[in-house]
Amino acid sequence: MSLILGILLTAAAAIAGTLLCPSPPSSNRHRVPGLALALAAGLALALAGRPAEAGDLLQGRATVVDGSTLVVGGVPVTLSGIVAPAAKTTCWDAHEAPYTCGRRAAAELTAHIGTEGLTCERSGPADDRSAVAVCRMGAEDLGDWMIARGYAVPTSDAPASYKKAADRAWGQRVGLWAGIFEDPTSWRQAAR
């Protein structure tokens, strides 16, 4: 919306300037190049100053911060629709032995991504310092992958496919579901 508004305002200013300040009759100058230059400058300014929006893409190699946070192209990206345990969270395996499930979730995501490039589509308004996005490695949705492997749980507003993946992970007792864990959503809300 801000892009369209910027273009319209620039065009209006250029047209007003051309009509209100005409060239003298003896001048051989053409108004069209000036108008085109003004429009191009306005477009460049509008594009440079527009905020990030849903649907914008971030692409590149990722660095995993934790099971639901990556850094792509220098921008921290929270995977949309999932919550993974924080790095220091302790869970218990099937034999009731404690382990840091947050670190394991991050390690599994790191190993899965390797050196592959990602494409992350912003799923909500954000600034250039952070984003909430659906990230894909090829056609594979990383949020869905994390949930299906039992390393994360879906948020309440997650897509139905994420909830089905969580049901399958629970049924197969994989990842977090193989033992005892506190719901990461509750843990993160308590930490705030």
Descriptive keywords:
single chain; alpha+beta; five-stranded mixed beta barrel; two-stranded antiparallel ribbon; 6 helices; 10 strands; globular; disordered N terminus
Task: Describe the fold and architecture.
It is a single chain. By secondary structure, the protein is α+β, with helices and mostly antiparallel strands. Helices cover 41% and strands 23% of the residues. The protein has six helices and ten strands. The chain has helices spanning 2-20, 31-49, 101-113, 142-148, 160-172, 184-191, and strands spanning 57-66, 69-72, 75-79, 82-83, 90-92, 98-100, 117-122, 131-137, 140-141, 153-154. The strands form three sheets. Strands 1-2-3-8-7 form a five-stranded mixed barrel. It has a two-stranded antiparallel ribbon with strand order 4-10. β7 and β8 form a beta hairpin. α1 packs antiparallel against α2 (31-49) and α4 runs parallel beside α5. The longest helix is centred in the N-terminal third of the chain and has 19 residues, at 2-20. The protein starts with a helix and ends with a helix. The model is unreliable at 1-13 and 32-52 (pLDDT under 50).
Largest sheet: 5 strands, mixed, barrel
* Strand-pairing-aware structural class: alpha+beta
Which spans of ≥5 residues are poorly predicted at pLDDT below 50? Answer: 1-13, 32-52
Radius of gyration: 25 Å
Helix segment count? 6
| Strands in their spatial order, largest beta sheet | 1-2-3-8-7
Q: List how many beta strands DSSP finds.
A: 10
End-to-end distance = 34 Å
Mean pLDDT: 78
Shape: globular
Q: What share of residues is helical?
A: 40-55%
State the order of secondary-structure elements, H for helix, E for strand. Answer: HHEEEEEEHEEEHEHH
How much β-strand is present in the residues? 15-25%
